[in-house]
Structure formats: C-alpha cells, structure tokens
Amino acid sequence: MIALTLAAMAVVVFASRYLFLEPRLPMELGPKLRRLMGYATPAVLSAVIAPMVLIHQGQLNSDWQNPYLIGAIAAVLIMLLSKNTLLSTVLSMLIFVALKFWLFA
C-alpha cells in the first residue's frame, strides 16, 4: 500500500511539473497566477522549517539560547545582506554548528 501511494504521488508530481515545463504544450500561466506562484516556495519552506526551529521536545522554544533559532535568523540576515544563497547557507550552517556543538553543548 505504501509503494502504491508513493508511486501515485510520484505520478502526480511528475505530471504537474511536466505540464508547466514542457514548452511544446499550449498551456501557459497568466501573469497574476505566475506572480502568485512565486509565493509558494517561501510559504512551503516556512511551514517546513518553522517547527524544526521553534519546537523542541513538543514545547515552544523561542529562547535566545536556541541554536536553531539563531541559525535561522543568521540565514535570513545573511541572505538579506548578501543576496547569495550559497554564502547564506554555508555561513548559517557554520554559525549553527558553532552554537550547537561548542557554545551551547
């Protein structure tokens, strides 16, 4: 049953991507829908990352000693300042590792 569910989800994801990415198909998004779809990635990433950053052992952890929160804030600040995704990822990971394993160990 799990394999069937995974296969069905793979078909749905592939079909939805193929319809929008295949240039020979006569399907095109309007400008308003294209602009709206620009918010999908940040919304999904926020929904995935927020529980990892803010919830620890079933409790809200917004303490200043939360290395996940500090790393996430650092990633946002570095990204806003540099506009470089690779730099933001690497520096925020280094900040997180330094906090997690050396300062708050």
Query: Quick one: overall form?
Result: extended
What share of residues is helical?
over 70%
Compressed to H and E, one letter per element, the order equals HHHEEHH
Helical stretch tally: 5
SSE-based structural type: mainly alpha
Domain count: 2
Number of strands: 2
Task: Give the N-terminus to C-terminus distance in angstroms.
Answer: 42 Å
Rg result: 19 Å
* Biggest sheet layout: 2 strands, antiparallel
Cross-sheet strand order for the largest sheet: 1-2
What percent strand? under 5%
Q: Which residue ranges are poorly predicted, with pLDDT under 50 across at least 5 consecutive positions?
A: none
Mean pLDDT reading: 87
Organism: Pseudoteredinibacter isoporae
InterPro entries: Brnchd-chn_aa_trnsp_AzlD
Protein name: Branched-subunit amino acid transport protein
Keywords: Membrane, Transmembrane, Transmembrane helix
Question: Keyphrases for this structure?
Answer:
105 residues, two-stranded antiparallel sheet, extended
Task: Tell me about this structure.
The chain is mainly alpha-helical and 105 residues long. The chain has two domains: 1-38, no CATH class; 39-105, no CATH class. Helix content is 73%, strand content 4%. It has five helices and two strands, in the order H-H-H-E-E-H-H. It has helices at 2-21, 31-37, 40-54, 67-82, 85-103; strands spanning 55-56, 59-60. The protein has a two-stranded antiparallel ribbon with strand order 1-2. A hairpin with a 2-residue loop joins strand 1 and strand 2 (59-60). The protein is extended. The mean pLDDT is 87.
